[in-house]
Amino acid sequence: MSLALASFFGPGLYGNRTASGITLKPSTIGVAHRSLPFGTRVRFEYMGRTLTTEVIDRGPAEWTGKEWDLTEAAFKQLAPLSIGVIEVNATILGTAATLGGEAEYAVARSAAGGNVELGEIGEKYGTNAKAVGSMVAALGAGWWLYRKKADAGIMYLALLVMSSLIYNWAQLKANFSN
User: What angle do the packed helices 127-147 and 118-125 form, to 10 degrees?
Assistant: First the structure.
């Protein structure tokens, strides 16, 4: 548990996508952090109130001196908006990887211009690992889109991504049979 400053974001940004790909709405409960993986669960405590939520966005800017940026709905569960900035006790409960959700954010990271770390596996461990990494990323992408009930255009793109799964499976099979 650590003490840190937290503010809120949301007004003026509703309808936009967060860095993890979630469409921000007035009812969205989440938090922004500069470096924790998307999906990391964090418990906040302030003046006897407690909130557990996930990292869904990036921020706040380092120069602000704040560690956390809660969505407006999340901030309201801890304090009145009129306060603006609060000092919270924050406890990191687990990263997305330890909680089983990291693959769901692969497409969102890619769409937001971030890197899908699974692609880096191939650079370190060769073609076989790269093929496995691509397959896991493709499966994660498909599952994420399915759970988010994506529109037809996005699902078409998902089919293109999934086709790489078939190609990479054939490549992996050929590499292991040599």
Answer: 170
- Choosing from 99, 124, 145, the residue where a domain stops is 99
Last residue of a domain, one of 37, 67, 99: 99
Q: Please, what is the Cα angle at 120 between 117 and 123, to 5 degrees?
A: 175
Enter the DSSP assignment of 67: S
Per-residue model confidence (pLDDT) at position 2? 85
pLDDT tens readout for residues 118-166:
333 334 444 444 455 555 555 565 555 555 555 555 555 555 556 655 6
SS3 label, residue 9: strand
Please state whether beta strands 31-32 and 68-71 pair in parallel, antiparallel, or not at all (unpaired).
antiparallel
Q: What pLDDT, on a 0 to 100 scale, did the predictor assign at position 94?
A: 84
Quick one: 45 and 90 in the same domain?
Answer: yes
H helix or E strand, kind and range, residue 27: none
User: Token match 């309201």: residue?
Assistant: 76
